[in-house]
């Protein structure tokens, strides 16, 4: 029981993670959920995001649950940023796993309908929300791991890239990448910089110029994701990886307690990359919005 309780403390999360099973000392599989004490976990859900927090480990699972494809609408982005901000303010939260509740899809990226025939004001508000999402995720003082359990094109890939580590389901049918060029859009330079930081200049150059979507195995080969695991292991592997990251002493680790360690992170260059006015203007002036709509001429 002591071993099991220790495992429970390590993985104890309500909902998805709490349903994980571990091998007990006696060799059998045991479900962790019955061992959890109610005070160890909490869950909050909006219409598009479920947040499950395990207070004993400091790990939260943020699950996107906006059918059909977790597209990043203004409502979605607002709920996402608020959820992340709440976790950021919760000093007990040290790590966030980002995943999807939808089969086969992590996120389809920016919601195309948000930008179809909308006013420049709406585009500006929407674009600001996109940047807010990226800043919150990329600049988070918590450890962030993307548990990519489905396809993740364009803005969905950006979300994953903004995390510290990416674990993807090893399903060759799933794809990930910044494919904006294929849609006739130029990915903003901070999308590009986020990609360059992960895969290096040459791979980023080819990816962006050709708008490449990589299959899961190719994404691993290029370094776009860090690890492939069987689909049913994505979340449990993310949890185990998070535990390893959180074991790094606080003085050296972003997101480890005490959270003051985050003050050592200089976000200035990252924040400088964001040019709000330019991005929202270009989004409206590029004429790509009608291009992506089915009623285009
Ligand atoms: C200067 C500005 C730069 C801005 C940069 C842009 C970044 C972006 O993120 S732009 C968005 C790019 N996204 C994509 O290219 C993804 C497009 N979608 C797909 O490839 C597929 O839909 C996907 C692989 C995600 C899922 O495939 P399926 O499982 O086969 O589903 P369907 O294709 O049938 O789609 C179901 C349903 O969802 C709607 N959908 C899909 N993507 C989006 C989206 N991005 N926004 C809004 N809605 C989306 C699709 O139209 C279907 O709707 P219904 O027909 O009503 O069922």
From TrEMBL:
Give the metabolic or biological pathway: Lipid metabolism; fatty acid beta-oxidation
Q: CDD domains given for it?
A: crotonase-like
Q: According to the UniProt entry, what is the EC number of this protein?
A: 5.3.3.8
Describe the family membership recorded for this protein in Swiss-Prot or TrEMBL. Belongs to the enoyl-CoA hydratase/isomerase family.
Respond yes or no to whether keyword Transit peptide is given for this record. yes
| Alphabetical GO biological process terms | fatty acid beta-oxidation
Quaternary structure, from the entry = Homotrimer.
**Which GO molecular function entries does the Swiss-Prot or TrEMBL record give?**
delta(3)-delta(2)-enoyl-CoA isomerase activity
Name used for this protein in its record: Enoyl-CoA delta isomerase 1, mitochondrial
Q: Which terms are listed as keywords in the entry?
A: Acetylation, Fatty acid metabolism, Isomerase, Lipid metabolism, Mitochondrion, Transit peptide
* GO CC term (a single one): mitochondrial matrix
Q: Does the keyword Membrane apply?
A: no
Q: Where is it mainly found?
A: mitochondrion
What biological function has been recorded for the protein in this entry?
A: Key enzyme of fatty acid beta-oxidation. Able to isomerize both 3-cis (3Z) and 3-trans (3E) double bonds into the 2-trans (2E) form in a range of enoyl-CoA species, with a preference for (3Z)-enoyl-CoAs over (3E)-enoyl-CoAs. The catalytic efficiency of this enzyme is not affected by the fatty acyl chain length.
For this protein, the record's InterPro entries field holds: ClpP/crotonase-like_dom_sf, Enoyl-CoA_hyd/isom_CS, Enoyl-CoA_hydra/iso
The reaction(s) this protein catalyses: (3Z)-hexenoyl-CoA = (2E)-hexenoyl-CoA; (3Z)-decenoyl-CoA = (2E)-decenoyl-CoA; (2E)-tetradecenoyl-CoA = (3Z)-tetradecenoyl-CoA; a (3E)-enoyl-CoA = a 4-saturated (2E)-enoyl-CoA
List locations, semicolon-separated: Mitochondrion matrix
Q: Which organism is it from?
A: Acipenser oxyrinchus oxyrinchus
